[in-house]
Amino acid sequence: MAALPQHTAARPQLAATLAHPAVQWFLLLLAGLGLPFLVYPVLAMEMLCFALFASAFNLLMGYAGLLSFGHAAFFGTGAYLFGYASKMLAFGPLASLACGTLAAAALGVVFGSIAIRRQGIYFAMVTLALAQIVYFALVQAPFTGGEDGMQGIPRGMVFGMFDLQGEQTVLGQTAPWCLYLLVLVLCLAGHALIARLLASPTGLALRAVQDHEARARSLGLQADRIKFWVFVTSAALAGLAGAMKALVLGLASLTDAAWNMSGEVVLMTLIGGVGTLLGPAVGAFFLRYLHHALAGLGGWVTVLIGAIFVICVLLFRRGMVGEWRAWRGAARV
Amino acid sequence: MSDIPLQAVLSQVMLGLNNGAFYALLSLGLAVIYGMLEVVNFAHGALYMMGAFGALIGLEYLEAWTGIPGLRLTFWWALLLVPLVVGAFGVLVEALLLRRIARLEPIYGLLLTFGLALILEGVFANGFSAAGEPYNGKPEALEGVVNLGFMFFPRYRLFSMLVAVLSCVAVWWVIERTRLGAQLRAGTENPAVTSAFGINVPRLRSLTYFLGAALAGLAGVVAAPIYSVGPHMGAELIIVVFAVVVIGGMGSILGAVMTGLALGVLEGLVKVVYPPMANTVVFVIMALVLLWRPAGLFGREA
After folding, report:
1. CA dihedral sign, ordered A290, A295, A297, A299
2. For the segment A214-240, what is each residue's pLDDT rounded down to a tens digit?
3. CB atoms within 10 A of CB A296
4. Per the domain annotation, does B210 fall within a domain?
5. Interatomic CA distance for residues B125 and B127, integer angstroms
6. Chain centroid to CA A314: how far?
7. Nearest CA in chain B to A264
8. Complex ipTM, two decimals?
């Protein structure tokens, strides 16, 4: 009985500590370091890449209210340009990652200046069509390897001392730990950038634009400009995610740029929770794991993905994180 | 350009017009569904694919599947029955799925029908070869070529264009000139007032999706003898049709049809002049039109 008051006193303190951003980022880092002990390390890295991809997409869908159905174009461009820089130009991994990211950002500028004029479903259709141009360009470009994709992209060394190719054993788990750390740090950095952006004055303005665009405009906010730069940021991060995927798998393929991929990132975000910070990452983990676990099913995976889509839209629009929050919120009241 | 023979240009223009007729038929269905239900039907390509498979299954597999000897659907029967079946499937989709999200933002309709398209595509990809199968049921009467004066053109392709144009005219007539069409337009404009006049708006919505799906199914049946019948035939097409719809604007039926035909011809011309661009020219045009007129050529700002 005597322990009870202590217990209730300690809880708010613990909750306050846990709510501190620095503590939360540290916990995420720890969770990230633990991931390769739970799943196959290459799968873990793939999950992290897709988590960043989905979060970049969610920046646009969840916080700017713009559903892009062409984000695979940025992901694919990031992957292919990483491959081009690393394999053809023999750049180091970091410079190659930067190449992929910048190329996707430049593409984002082009897409953004065309698509930002339309909203809602038209925005979705326009981005889908623009992405199709990129897809066909990648099919025909001389360096992409056409239908085969670009294979055997080297991983290389970081700062001349960290070998991304080699494997090390940590706590009994053998994995390419250098590569894993790089991917984890970049993934977390991308998420931190998104969180920082949303907490900034620009983020507040973005929320105002999403809530009531006409009113935000009448307050003097340049809605189109804000949306444009969010679009470019989202494109750049999606490009980084694609470049990291090419780094991890040593492969850039047409699947990365195809419309199915654009649909898949929508589903990751939807299933995890649109407009939540962690939701898209959760959705990406879930969906990548599903792909991995059900690889033996072959073509039926498409049917399953479609069914999950339909179920999400019908019954589960808040996503996993959104539902959990709603449940916790209801429990508190 | 001068070294390209006129014959090649003309034949590509005719083939382009043929493709354009399909674009027109599909974008018309999309526009009809969007007008009434505010749903951008991503499954439209899948319904088109279902139409083509309907014709193929009726011809090649029905006998084996049902075990009734001699049971085959000839092309003409398929042309009549398959659109009705696809339309009925559409009614089910509307009643079981789309109705539940009718009050939400249109974007959810797009996502739901995208999921549906994946399901349909996946099911057919598992049952049939991904590369596609030819449809060998082209009727005798439509074999051979016709002399158009300036070139010889396959009789069947001419027929397919005729079907597409007639269907477009029929849909225009129903919507603009009949009592039912007036009710549809009223239901689109103001559902609450329309139902206050005693018109059954939910039934109108079902009927609209039936009409749109049946049009897609019809396009599929007509397309079956021309293109090979495969599970992915609708997916690529639907993205082009989306671009057509963005260019034309979804407001007008005539706009959708004209844009579809014009883009088909343009695609044909590009195929002669600069083949690598043929796949993308529609999307490039779309980007240019958006820069010039954000609402599309015939559209109102949405």
Report:
1. positive
2. 888 888 888 889 999 999 999 999 999
3. 7
4. yes
5. 6
6. 24
7. B115
8. 0.86
Enter the tokens of residue B91. 């009614």
CA distance B229 to B135: 7
**Separation of CA B44 from chain center:** 7
Distance from the B93 Cα atom to the nearest Cα atom in chain A, whole angstroms: 11
Residue of A317, A250, A248 lying closest to A288 (CA atoms): A248
Strand partners, B145: B154
Q: Tell me what the mean pLDDT of segment A249-277 comes to.
A: 92
In this complex, the residue of B105, B114, B283 whose CB is nearest that of residue A129 is: B283
CA B142 to chain CA centroid, Å, is 22
Taking the model in full, what pTM does it have? 0.89
- Residue B253: name the closest of B180, B185, B159 by CA: B185
Determine the distance in angstroms separating the CA of A225 from the nearest CA of chain B, rounded to an integer: 16
Alpha carbons B222 and B165: distance in angstroms, whole number: 12
Residue that the structure tokens 């303190």 belong to: A13
Residue whose entry in the numeric block shows the structure tokens 């009592």: B179
CA atoms within 13 A on the CB side of A199: 8
Task: Mark residue B94 as left, alpha or beta (left: phi above 0; alpha: psi -120 to 50; beta: remaining).
Answer: alpha
**Residue reference for tokens 């670009």:** A150
The residue of B101, B113, B114, B301 whose CB has the most chain A CBs within 10 angstroms, and thus the best one to mutate to test that interface, is: B114
Residues of B with CB under 8 A from a CB of A: 40, 97, 100-101, 104-108, 110-112, 114-123, 125-126, 235, 239, 242-243, 245-246, 276, 279-280, 282-284, 286-287, 290-291, 294, 302
A–B: how many Cβ contacts below 8 A?
122
Q: Residue B241 and residue A105: Cα distance in Å, rounded?
A: 28
Task: Tell me the per-residue pLDDT of B33-77, one tens digit each, with 9 for 90 and over.
Answer: 888 788 889 999 999 999 999 999 999 888 888 888 878 889 999
Residue A172 main-chain phi, psi, to 5 deg: 80, 0
Full domain range(s) for residue B170: 24-238
Between B115, B126, B239, which is nearest A310 by CB? Answer: B115
Closest CA to B271 of B14, B27, B25: B14
> Whose structure tokens read 């935000």?
A216
How far apart CA B61 and CA B136 sit, in angstroms, is: 13
Q: At what angle do helices A300-315 and A279-293 cross, to 10 degrees?
A: 150
